[in-house]
Each structure stands twice: as C-alpha cells, then as structure tokens.
Amino acid sequence: MATDERRPPVLRRSPWPFRILLWVVLGTGVVSLATGAVAASGTGAPAAWRLILAAGLFALGDVCVLRLRFGHNSHSFSWSETAMVVGLVLVPGPWLRVVAPLAVAAAHAAARRPPLKIAFNAMSIATEAVLAAAVLAAVAPAGEPVTSPRLWAGLAAASLSLFVWGGVTVSAAVAFSQCLPLRQVYAKGLPVTALVWAGNTALGLLLVGLSGAPASLVAVPLVVLMLHLAYRTYLGAMNERDTWELLETASGELLRADARVVAGVVLDRVPALFRAEYVELLVTDGEAGEHAAVYRRDGHAVEEERGDAMTVAQATWLGALRRREIYQLVRAHAPGDEAADLAARGLEACAVAPLLSPRGCVGVLRIGFRGEVLLGERELQVLTTFANHLGSALHNTSLIEELRAQALRDPLTGLPNRSLMLDRLSQALKRMHRRPGGVAVLFCDVDRFKVVNDSLGHPAGDELLVAVARRLEQTVRVGDTATRFGGDEFVVVCEDIGDDGQAADVAGRLSACLAEPFRLRGDDIYVTVSIGVAVSDDPTEDPAALVRDADAAMYEAKAKGRSCCVVFDDPMRERAVARLEVENDLRRAIERGELRVHYQPNVSIDGLRVVGAEALVRWERPGRGLVSPLEFIALAEETGLIVPLGRFVLDEACRQLSAWLADGLVDDSFVVSVNLSAHQLRGPGVLEDVHQALRASGLDSRQLCIEVTESALVDQGGSSDTIRSIHAMGVRIAIDDFGTGYSALSYLHMLPVEILKIDRSFVGRLGLDPRDRALITGVIDLAHGLGLKVVAEGVERADQLGDLASMACDIAQGFYFAKPQAATAMQTLLRQEAGLGLRPTVDLREVAVQA
Ligand code: C2E
Ligand code: CA
Ligand code: CA
Q: Are 444 and 451 in contact (CB under 8 A)?
C-alpha cells in the first residue's frame, strides 16, 4: 500500500474526528489480532521459514520507506503491498493476522518510534490483513498453485482492497488532523499512491510467480532497485512541479495586493514551500531602518508588530544588511545576537533572505526550523526567486510609503516631527528665491509643563500636549506648518513674513489661542508659552541654524519671566556665539583638569572654631584666570555638564577632607559641604556618585553635607526621594540660600534636612532694616524648633556677627572670616588654628585676616 507517513498522533490536541478515526483503526486492529490469534491456534502452524520470511517482509516493507515530502506534508511510501501479496501466499490468513502486526510493531519499536505510532501502524496492518485475506479467499480458493491465474487475480484483488481502504483511512487521518477537506486530500495523493500501489503489487506478483522457479529469484533485488529508482525520479519530478507551481501562484498573488495582503500570502505560502515551522517578514522604510512592520507566523500563530527596526528584529535586520545575500544559520554556530534570537524563538536553524528592490534593501524574509535543517541548492534557488518577487512586490505597495510617513510624524500629536519640519523649512527657504518675504521660525515652549506632568501624571500631560497641538494647528495660516519639536516644544514655520514685527504678531496669535483654559480630567489648566522667533530672508540660510536661533530666543523669553515672546537679534547672536564657546571650553575644562575646588570655612558662632568648610568650584580658564562659578554653573546645568562637574567637586572635596583628617588638621566632627544643583538631583547617577565619593575617600558619611536650594526641592517632584536616599546613607542635608526661593517652611519637616543656610542677602541687610532682624530671628527660632542648625551666609562685618550671636545663630560663613580659598591656603588656616591649641578662645578673625 502507498501510505502517508503515519504521523505520531497527538491525541489530546487533535480534532475529534481524527481521534474517532484513530480509535476505530486501533479497535478493529485489536479485534483482528485477537480473533486471528484464536483462529491460528486452531489451525496447524505453517513451516517456520514461511513465518520468518513473511515477518521479515512485513518488517522491511513497513520500515524501509521511500520518504518524500509534498508541500507541507511528509509522505512515506512503503513496500507493504509487496509484503502483503507475498505474505498471503506464504502463510494462512489467521497466521497472517498475527505475524504481520507483530513484525510491524517489532520493526517500528526497533526504529525507536513513539508507542502510539507503533500501536497505530501495527493495528492498521492487522486490519488490512483481515481484509486482504477475506478478499483473496473470495476470489481464489485455498491451495491454488503459485502459477494459477486465479490466485494472481485473487492477490491483485486483495491488494486493490488495501489500496482503497488504506487510501481512505490515511487521507481521512490527514484531512481530519489538519482540518482539510477529505476529498481534496484523497484526490491530491491519488496519482502517486496509485503508481506506487501498481508497482508494489506487480513486484509482489512477480515474486510469487518466480517462487515457482526459485533460481530466477536472484533477479528480484535488481527489479526492486529499478522500481525504487523509478519511484524516486518520478516522485522527485512531481515534487519539483508542485514547488514551482506553488511559487508561481504565490508570486502571482503578491503582485496584485497591498502590503498586508502580501504579508498574508508570505505567511500562508512560505511554510508549505520550504516546510518551515516559522516565517518572519520584516518590511522597513529604508536602510536606516527607522520604522518597520514585522509579520510573523509560528506554527498557526500569526502576529504583527510595528516599531523601530532595530528593536523589533535587530539581529535579523542587521545580519541581512551586512551580508546582502541569502544566508543560512544553525543556532549552534550562529553569531551571538542571532543565536540568542533563534533560541528565544525555539528555532535550531533559519535561512534569511534580504528583500532587495530598486530602493535598496526594503526588508527581510526569514524562515526558521525547529530542527537543524539546511536548505539544499535547489531550495535556496527557490527562496532567492521568491525573495526577489517579494522585494519588488513590496516596492510596489504603499506600506513603505506609510512607514516613511510614520517616520516623519510625531506619534503622539500626529504633527510633523523634527525631520519633516526641517525639510519643510528648507523648502520654504528655497522658495524665497522666487517669492518676496522672509521665513519665520517660532519656537514655542510650554511654560511649567513639568508641573502638569508631575501633578496630574504623564497621561494627562500627553493629553495636554495633544490639545495644544490641535489649537496650534488650527491657528496657523494655510501653508504654515505647526510641528512638534520634542517634549513640550513646538515649532511653527511661517512663510511670507515681511519683518520681525509681523513675526511677533504671529507669536501673539499663538499665545492667544492657548489662553483659553484646557479642560483636563475635570480641571481647568491654564497654559502659557515662551516663544522665541528667528526670521530670515536669506535663501541660503541653514535651516538648523535658524531653528537654533529661535531656540536661543526662546531661552531669553524664559529668562525674562516666561509667557512672552523674544525675537532673535544681533546682540543675542553674539551672546549665543560666546555661550557656545564657553560651553565647548567648559567641556574640555573638565577633561583637561582645569577645575579647582576652593574652600570657605564655616565657623561656630559660640566658640569661633572652624567646624567645617563649603567646597566651591572655580575654573582656571587659560588666558582668563580664575573664573567664578556664577559665570558657568547655569550653563553647565543647561548643558548637562553639571553632572561630571559636580562629580569632580564631590570626589575632590571628600578626598581633601580625608587628607586633612589623616594629617590631623581636623577631627571627625569637621563637615565638608558640597553644592548639588537641581539638574543633578534629577539625574539618575547622583546616588551612585555620592556613594562612590565616600567609598573612594573612605570618609565617614556624617562628615559630608549636601547643599540644595529650596527651589531645587520644590520644583522637582522626584528629587525629594533622592534627598531621602542620600540622607539614608548618613549624609547631612542643608537647605541653601534660604529665603530667596519659596521660603515655605512647611516642607522642611517633611524632608530630612539638618541644616538651614540663611541667604546672604538677609545677612547683608542686618543692621539696616529692623524687619530683616525680626525675620531672621523668626527663621532661627523656627529652625531650632524643628531641630535644625542654622548657618548665616555672607557675614562680612563684626556687627553682623554680634547680631547673629545674639539671635543664637549656630554657624557663620563669610568674608569676615575668610574668602573661599585654595586647599593649600585652607590648610595653613587649619594648621594655625590647630597649632594655637587655644580653642575655643582663639580669635579666628585675626587668623582670617592673615589668610
Ligand atoms: P552658594 O552656594 O550660595 O555659595 C556661597 C557663595 O557666596 C560663594 O560664591 C561665596 O564666594 C559667596 N560668599 C561667601 N561669603 C561671602 C560674603 O561674605 N560676601 C559675599 N558677597 N559673598 C560671599 P561663589 O563661590 O561665587 O559661588 C556662587 C554659587 O555658585 C554658589 O552659591 C553655588 O550656588 C554655585 N556653586 C559653586 N560651586 C558649586 C558646585 O560645585 N556645584 C554647584 N552645583 N554649584 C556651585
Ligand atoms: Ca552653597
Ligand atoms: Ca548659599
């Protein structure tokens, strides 16, 4: 019989008709075997050689199979009809029903097949033996000689019955298990199974006929070999035809469809074409691969994903771009990334085909296998052809355009993004060749957007951005473009602008359109924007430079108190250039070690002892001398350079204090204070920086104090957590410049603050305005009530110190004692103080004047 391979049936997950069929086959087989055994025990046993020969034929016939694959299915053609025809002559029916299943079971067991498969195959042959024996008995009476035509006719009829029965059961098994129409499956297999059946039966009859003249049996192996070769060639050709037919159909289907349909065709057809268990189609908008759509099929599961090509299919995409032609990978020998990807998908091997089109590589087709499958030369050729068709099919679809468009839009607001804005801007600039009027760039930044985000949450923040985008879009004139630059920044590009004043009018309209409150989750949110405007009438202007000017103007608007518009002008350009220069130099200053840390002593007011020092950064700028932090800290914060700068000061201050400790200049009650800006507090690495500075210096964390301004604490929602974590390490926290910011004492007890530094502007007015005195007294009392120590900054005169002493202020810092000074000078001061050994009566004022 020609059979489909009797696959190991997976009972629990198979459809119910398949399970019924399976039980029917197993049931009839068991009955046939049992009744055969009973009947055989009643009849005389045939000669042992007959039994052995029949058993051998059945075993070989079922296990030495010709394995071929058609499309998605694997077919194995056995020699079982030959075995049956000969077996019917060799042993009587009842014995056949016992011998055949046992031989088949033994053969499959020896080939280590799964138990269910062994049972299924053995029971199928048992059923077939009953059927064949009955048909033979009906046509030819027992005892006919081997040369009798009647016997031959009987044998042929028996074999035919197997053909019909086997064809139906096997087709049904395939159809039921894969939910395909039975008739289609049966019809599809028919030509091949009929051919194999005819060959096998003829061979069986030949063997029977020749057994009359045993000498001629020597020719049998030759006949078998020839038949085998004939089958192979024929079936191979059929298979080939199937593949190309499928390829042609698929390629045809690819041509007429949109991208999603193309993807559908690929996912449907490719597994059948290559017997692959996994298919992945990645389509991108170009070789930069910014946006990609990925379609996958793993067994029956299909999924679609969109995103950045570098994240959705990084290893495959990069691999395809690197190699640019079809390649195959086996997990065990694949490069790291690709091996990891295969492992994650449960694959052992894959073949990857880049999809080339006139545009370059537009995607990748990957097919994967659960086993270590390598495609042969012919299959690679098929894959290449298919990939070429696919590449040009995709080229013709709109998906690539769609992905391109996506790459140019901001996904949240749908407005053009930065790259599309720059594109539009450069076109507008070019149009000025033909048209009078300038181009204006309006850089709009939503004021205090962070407050909305922090207080109402990010989803509400997003909602607000979308609403702002809609209003801007509705307000701009036709032909002008509202775009989202990023975060809470929007850029509007306007053409036909006569002068700066006209541009400022547009800015006014934009501000006005946002003036109406936004209704957000039950709250009315008022939005203002700071707008920077840059106008150009030079067609050769660099678009990016124009945007940068508008951005700089926007910063000025923020600095002017927000909610206003500033037009970029020449003085601003000069400042911007200078700023850029400082920024570049500062960046290098950190690397070149041009930063210095100076120390200003903190003096206890009751004992006039140096109890600590504040570390203050200086920049030794070549050719410019020692530059004050006032000139570069703000810039360092804007550019993020404050992070490495702050790390340097922190490390250096801790290192210096532990050196002084080692030299015996100070004791373990001495505290060094380091300033931390809001930007640093917001950054992710500050905890690690503090930790690292302490670890490297071996300093006790209680000897370090971190100074933060009130505004840094109030402005940022998350920074209070950072403050708590720093305090949890044992580090002291000081509020700097108290009185200049929010002066909200309410939150002081919510944070682990230990020290309060009164801003020098208050101290400076002591003795001038009695109200300041009252205010400072109040602050000191309140701070003491909360258990905080108070430091007065900017003490310049003896009378101020006297006042502060009378108000029970704890510590003073100021030029009256010492200016911030280099570590060496500070060392001298400390040595003198320690050497005098007269604490607490020493008058530090003298020491300070000398230093
Ligand atoms: P600050 O934290 O308030 O530092 C005290 C400032 O007051 C210092 O200015 C100091 O020289 C000055 N000062 C001290 N005593 C007197 C006085 O009696 N009279 C007057 N008129 N001024 C006095 P400096 O060193 O120029 O630092 C300015 C600001 O720069 C600091 O203000 C601080 O906010 C920032 N800064 C300095 N170093 C760093 C640093 O390493 N990191 C960070 N984030 N900021 C720093
Ligand atoms: Ca400070
Ligand atoms: Ca201060």
A: no
